[in-house]
Design brief:
Elements lengths: L17 E6 L28 E6 L10 H8 L6 E3 L7 E8 L5 E12 L3 H18 L23 H11 L2 H4 L10 E11 L4 H16 L8 H11 L8 E5 L4 E5 L13 H8 L1 H12 L3 E6 L2 H13 L9 E3 L16 E6 L17 E5 L4 E3 L10 H14 L31 H6 L10 H9 L2 H14 L6 H13 L7 H27 L14 H6 L9 H6 L6 H7 L3 H12 L7 H17 L16 H4 L1 H8 L3 E2 L25 H4 L13 H35 L12 H30 L1 H6 L8 H21 L10 H22 L24 H9 L7 H14 L3 H10 L1 H7 L9 H12 L17 E10 L12 E7 L2 E2 L3 E2 L6 E7 L4 E8 L8 E10 L5 E10 L9 E5 L1 E2 L29 H11 L1 H4 L8 H9 L4 H10 L14 H18 L7 H18 L7 H14 L3 H10 L2 H5 L9 H12 L10 H4 L5
Parallel strand pairs: 7-14, 9-11, 9-12, 10-11
Antiparallel strand pairs: 1-2, 1-6, 3-6, 4-5, 5-6, 7-8, 12-13, 15-19, 15-21, 16-17, 16-18, 16-20, 20-23, 21-22, 22-24
Helix pairs in contact: 7-8, 7-9, 10-15, 12-15, 18-27, 25-27, 25-33, 27-30, 29-30, 31-33, 34-43, 38-39, 38-40, 39-40, 41-43
InterPro entries: cDENN_dom, dDENN_dom, DEN5A/B, DENN_C, PLAT/LH2_dom, PLAT/LH2_dom_sf, PLAT_RAB6IP1, Run_dom
Main location: membrane
Keywords: Guanine-nucleotide releasing factor, Membrane, Repeat
């Protein structure tokens, strides 16, 4: 089976690309690493020093160039660390990831151990540093007190450091326990890292290989072959397992097995998910997962690198079929901390220093941050955070999967703090006398949980571990059950052939099965939620080229229709999620798959959806919000288990190489210098060794490239030197000391990215709002626009927060934007105060003659808007205040203007922001404000509709028509203002006052005003032009046209009218009250006009029904009222229809109204009914007759003093609501009264026209109509 594998040398098929060794360079000696956040207060042993890549093999791989800086930084993210014989020196393992420009990833696996320092120069340098340190601190800190120092900056500080120091001090002198170093009696050790760089994340295999390699160095006898043989074997002779196959290769002592999922399975993920769930708890992990899906900024925080990696890889693995599209740095080296300033979504891991508190961590931006403290299993979530659909059932299912593997949620997690009592549940088969054993399990080598199964694995990882464990148990006096048995098991493992699996293999298989089952539960959720996604993909381009060129202009996914198809509870999450980059990329991949090969994740996902359809036959259950559990848990792990039981391929065994004898002689405890000549070239006997000329040319081209890169590196080094010299005089150099040039390039990309994002977002918001165009692009389904609009505005708020937090000098508060506004407010108020003290006479603002009645001018003021927000007790946080302010400014169409004003104070901007910040790039800032200005083209109510419980001051101005009436009246007038969210109640207007203000809970968009009086006194008649109402916070002014009399015996005798509002476009101060035309006093046309029935039916069928689709109970009631009763409304159209040919004005008689005709018709029907004339008519007709009479009588008997036109309006509204209009119309037409009251040419007497109108009115039956309370008040049906 082993044979010689043909493809073993081909690098894309090679298991590992590089083997590297990092450590101390004895040539350059000790170089302090200031960029790693050095603290000179620390004792020299605890400081960080620069590490180097000492060697890497091969020299270079063509398709994956070796990145020396990145490997060095990530192998030793905090540089070198030193120890003496008094300290713990356990080897540790961690992994890392390098993401390239094109998004491809390379994985690194690192085994770090301590090696004795043999160089006398380095020992004496350390001694000198100590003498200097002690001299400085002799007076301030007596040596003994430093033993309690726990703020170790060291990356690899094991969590046992403190626990173990008392024990070690018993055997050594007290000065030694204090972490001092004396070269005459102490042995100095320094960290060294062995690293494998691989194209795929075979974590367990690499971990085993590296630990065996280290064991070979520390073992008492030399390994069977020189170390070069094993390194050469894994670099050149071990292939990647083929998809769906398993592979066995040989380490120094034991065989190592790995397997790769097949093409139809979930992709490879080798990081233990159980550990991620154990560290955070199921609920927390689901919350962090949701933040990741919504592309927030996620910062992981832990002392242990492997924990950072496990959680980061765990979460991104669970995103299948989607992929994280943004900055991904699971281990952020100390020298790259400025990455946290990135104004883009990111997923980063930050190593916490031992003993430091979360509150001391200064982060540039927290408005949109999900902070994950892994070691204390606690998370901080952003505000306004939608929950994952079916979250409780989802969490329950995950808990059950974990339980089936014997893991209970949150048990075995490490204690919260060092000092907390050991309250972890006791585990069977193990007694504990002290916490030392628990801490050993949790000692950061693994970043693993305390828990029996993990302890067993740890014990079995290699004999060296057992050696250490045994020594520790003897020293601390802990009795650990079954250690001997386990040791025996390990021995057996060495001798046991391939017959049965060892305990360690069993454990590994169990973990792999659990991994797959947990991932299946997540994948199952997406399969259910997006089962229908394909139906909403818009395939509009004829070929790939045209699609790529127009990519940004095209709409690829019908979001509105997709959302309207989803269960209600899913909408808050889904409406946000379908706006993310990862979803957009997923849909792009889907569209591109018609021209090129399907992206692997998409292929697997589509196959699953097809399978689900096959079983469900598109059952309605797919669309319901009831939770569907994953049904393939048992089968999913079988394929993998089969592969591990029956190994498909065995690689060539390590063998002696053709190399010089005597070099790299075995010396216990020291990793030898390997022979580069044998490791830099692959085996010569396979076909890959004969390179073709083209490959050689490629290599030359690549060499030129690397020369170019080293040039860049020299430049970078120069800037780094500059940065270091700056930091010398500071004990803790701040990151701002980095030369801006180092960060400039990255920041330039950020600035360009932010501007592009702003352009895309504003464009999307405009298209969303601009009716017709949006409908054509598939965005016109109105029943979810509120939700979609809210999502877009929330993402605009996030974008503004990210822009304002880019390049901050000093962070203050969680919202960078609000902090800037507060600075501005403080300055302006100070100036205002100085201005007030200066003896300039204050001229009153009002320039107009006070006798004219109009809405007083509302001053535009950024500060005033801030004060409105500050006075809202409902908002508790700075982030909330900033968002409310953005919403208010957007609603007032002042967002761009306010931000321009804020940024016009350049001295303030310079004080708050670094040179490279977005807000200090003049050209980009101008473009950004211009994009925001474009939002003024549409009307937003994003403040009014969100803050529904706040109290808002309103101003009412009543404008009478003076020429024809008394400006004042002797009666007692009253007014009632109504909006979408309620009404203000009836308010008496003080006599002879035409302007008043009142405070009331937010009414939403204003819809109607009821205006009336009690008809008292001599001058009781009142002719009102219109009523103006203004929301004093948002500045929205509504005009309610009237143009009619209120009074008995005048017009239609109405004492109260319901006026329908329209939003006034902000115009000049002068005509704010009179900018709109007043409707004619009487709506009857002066001459007989034949209204073309097409225009009427056009008005009926196309103009009304489309907005009736939006009848969610309250949100669109206002727009419905306008469609029913406003100008050009249904009532107005029917009035015109009835007025046509109506004999209204009679000589020497009162004017006759349409209502008079209706009343007479009803009177006729009632009398006919009593005489029995209607008995013979069909039953339904009799019922309809009764309903019309019932409604008309109810309207006539209402206690309200509404006039005849008001009553007709009411009848039309009620008839439309109860779907009776088309049935009533024939009754009125058949009634003999029509002959007396209508000309022969009247439309109402034209059969075809009436039938057409009935057809139009019947189309309204498709829509539920909800009438506003102000319209139907006092009607008892």
């Amino acid at each position: 089976m082993s044979g010689s594998s043909a493809v073993s040398g081909a690098a894309p098929c090679r298991f590992a690309h590089y083997f590297a060794i990092c450590g101390i360079d004895t040539e350059t000696g000790l170089e302090p690493d200031e960029l790693a956040g050095e603290n000179f207060e620390e004792s020299p042993l605890k400081r960080t020093f620069k590490s180097k890549v000492l060697a890497h093999y091969p020299e270079n791989v063509e398709w994956n160039p070796f990145d020396q800086d990145a490997v060095n930084m990530l192998c030793m993210p905090k540089g070198l660390s030193f120890r003496t014989q008094a300290d713990q020196r356990h080897p540790q393992f961690h992994s890392f990831i390098i993401t390239k420009e094109d998004g491809s990833r390379t994985y690194g696996f690192v085994h770090t151990f301590y090696e004795q320092v043999t160089s006398p120069q380095i020992c004496s340098a350390m001694q000198t540093l100590y003498q200097m340190h002690n001299a400085e601190h002799a007076s301030a800190n007596p040596p003994s007190s430093s033993s309690s120092s726990s703020s170790s900056m060291d990356s690899l500080a094991s969590s046992l450091d403190e626990a173990d120091s008392p024990t070690s001090s018993s055997s050594t002198s007290s000065s030694r326990a204090a972490g001092t170093y004396d070269s005459s009696r102490d042995t100095l050790y320094v960290s060294k890292a062995l690293c494998l760089i691989t194209p795929m994340p075979f974590m367990h295999a690499c971990r085993h290989f590296l630990s065996q390699l280290h064991r070979a160095v520390t073992a008492a006898s030399a390994p069977p072959l020189p170390l070069e043989s094993y390194v050469h074997n894994i670099l050149y002779e071990v292939p990647l397992p083929a998809p769906g196959r398993s592979l066995k290769f040989h380490g120094v002592y034991e065989p190592i097995v790995c397997q790769r999922p097949g093409p139809g399975e979930l992709p490879l993920a080798d990081f233990p998910l159980a550990e991620a769930f154990g560290l955070l708890g199921v609920e927390n992990l689901v919350q962090v997962f949701t933040c990741t899906l919504l592309e927030m900024q996620i910062l992981l925080y832990s002392q242990d690198y492997q924990r950072l990696m496990t959680v980061a890889e765990g979460i991104t693995t669970l995103l299948f079929p989607f992929q994280w599209q943004h900055v991904y740095v699971p281990i952020l080296p100390a020298s790259l901390l400025h990455f946290l300033d990135a104004p883009v979504p990111y997923l980063m891991g930050l190593q916490s220093k031992e003993g430091t508190d979360r509150s001391k961590l200064e982060l540039p931006q927290e408005a949109n941050l999900c902070f994950v403290d892994i070691d204390n299993h606690y998370i901080e979530l952003p505000e306004d955070f939608p929950q994952f659909p079916n979250k409780p059932e989802f969490i329950q299912e995950l808990r059950e999967v974990l339980l089936s593997f014997g893991i209970t949620d949150n048990t075995g997690a490490p204690p919260r703090t060092r000092s907390s009592p050991s309250s972890t549940p006791s585990t069977p088969g193990r007694e504990r006398k002290t916490t030392a054993f628990r801490q050993l399990e949790d000692d950061g080598r693994n970043g693993n949980l305390a828990g029996e199964e993990l302890a067993v694995l740890e014990l079995l990882q290699g004999n060296a571990t057992l050696e250490r464990l045994q020594a520790l148990t003897k020293r601390t006096g802990v009795t650990v059950a079954r250690v001997e048995a386990l040791r025996a098991g390990v021995k057996a493992q060495d001798t046991e052939g391939q017959g049965g699996r060892t305990a360690a293999e069993e454990e590994e298989l169990r973990k792999a099965k659990l991994n797959i089952q947990l991932r299946e539960v997540f994948a199952g959720r997406f399969t259910t939620m997006f089962a229908d996604y394909e139906a909403f993909v818009i395939q509009s381009a004829p070929d790939l080229d045209s699609w790529l060129t127009n990519r940004e202009q095209m709409h690829n996914f019908d979001k509105a229709s997709f959302l309207s198809d989803q269960p209600e509870p899913y909408l808050p999450f889904l409406s946000h999620f379908i706006e993310t980059q990862m979803f957009a990329t997923f849909i792009d991949n889907k569209i591109m798959s018609q021209w090129e090969e399907k992206e692997p994740l998409l292929r697997v996902f589509d196959t699953r959806i097809d399978k689900a359809r096959l079983y469900n036959v598109r059952a309605p259950s797919l669309r319901s919000s009831s939770y569907q559990r994953c049904s393939v848990l048992k089968e999913c792990a079988q394929a993998m288990e089969q592969r591990l039981i029956k190994i498909d391929h065995t690689a060539i065994h390590p063998h002696l190489l053709d190399m010089k004898i005597g070099q790299g002689k075995y010396e216990q405890g020291f990793f030898p210098k390997l022979q580069a000549d044998v490791l830099n070239t692959g085996p010569t006997n396979n076909k890959w060794s004969h390179r073709t000329a083209t490959a050689q040319r490629r290599k030359d081209r690549h060499r030129q490239q690397t020369e170019h890169l080293t040039l860049d590196n020299d430049l970078k080094e120069k800037y780094m030197q500059e940065a270091r010299s700056l930091g010398k005089n500071l004990r803790q150099p701040k990151l701002s000391d980095l030369s801006p040039a180092v960060i400039a390039q990255t920041n330039w990309k950020f600035v360009e990215g932010l501007l592009k994002e702003c352009r895309m977002k504003t464009k999307r918001m405009l298209v969303e709002k601009m009716g017709r165009e949006a409908v054509e692009l598939g965005h016109g389904e109105a029943n979810i626009t509120g939700l979609e609009e809210n999502t877009l505005i929330a993402s605009l708020c996030d974008l503004l927060e990210r822009i304002w937090s880019h390049g901050l000098q000093v962070k203050q508060g969680k919202s960078a934007l609000w902090s800037h506004l507060l600075h501005y407010q403080a300055r302006e108020e100070k100036l205002e105060q100085q201005h007030a003290e200066s003896p300039v006479s204050n001229v009153p603002e009002r320039r107009k003659s006070d006798c004219s009645i109009a809405m007083p001018f509302l001053r535009v003021s950024l500060i005033q808007d801030m004060r409105h927000i500050q006075s809202m007790s409902e908002i508790k946080t700075d982030v909330g205040r900033a968002r409310a302010w953005i919403r208010l400014s957007l609603e007032k169409k002042l967002l761009s203007q306010h931000l321009k004003q804020l940024l016009s104070r350049q001295a303030l901007t310079k004080k708050l922001y670094k040179r490279y910040a977005f807000l200090r790039c003049e050209e980009e800032k101008e473009q950004f404000l211009y994009h925001l200005l474009s939002l003024n083209a549409v009307d937003y109510f994003c403040f009014t509709s969100v803050f529904t419980t706040i109290v808002i001051p309103y101003r009412v101005v009543i404008i009478p028509i003076k020429k024809l009436s008394n400006a004042m009246t002797t009666s007692n007038p009253w007014v009632c203002v109504s909006g979408e969210l309620g009404d203000a109640g009836i308010m008496q207007i003080p006599k002879n006052v035409l302007e008043m203000t009142f405070d009331c809970q937010n009414l939403g968009k204003l819809t109607t005003v009821q205006l009336g009086h009690d008809n008292a006194g001599l001058l009781a008649k009142w002719l009102v032009d219109c009523v103006m109402v203004r929301n004093e916070i948002t500045g929205h002014t509504y005009r309610f046209p009237c143009g009619r009399w209120l009074g008995k015996g005048v017009d239609d005798g109405s004492l109260e009218r319901v006026l329908i509002g329209e939003l006034v476009l902000p115009s000049g101060e002068e005509d704010s009250g009179r900018g709109c035309r007043t409707p004619p006093l009487q709506r009857s046309p002066s001459q007989t006009r034949r209204i073309s029935i097409t225009s009427l039916s056009g008005r009926g069928s196309s103009q009304y029904p489309s907005p009736f689709t939006c009848c969610s109970e309250t949100a669109h009631r206002g727009s419905l009222t306008i469609l029913l009763c406003g100008e050009n409304s249904l009532v107005a159209a029917l009035e015109q229809f009835f007025h046509h040919g109506f004999k209204s004005a009679r000589l020497f008689q009162k004017t006759v109204f349409i209502w008079d005709f209706v009343e007479r018709a009803v009177a006729y029907m009632e009398s006919a009914d009593q005489m029995g004339d209607l008995q013979e008519t069909a039953e339904p007709l009799g019922m309809t007759c009764q309903s019309l009479c019932h409604y008309v009588n109810a309207i006539n008997s209402t206690p309200r003093n509404i006039g005849k036109d008001g009553k007709f309006q009411l009848l039309v509204c009620l008839g439309a609501r109860d779907r009776l209009l088309p049935q009533w119309l024939p009754l009125l037409v058949e009634c003999p009264v029509i002959l007396r009251m209508f000309e022969e040419t009247a439309l109402l007497r034209d059969r075809t026209t009436v039938n057409a109108l009935i057809g139009v009115l019947e189309t309204l039956h498709d829509f539920p109509i909800t009438l506003e309370a102000s319209l139907v008040k006092g009607i008892d049906l």
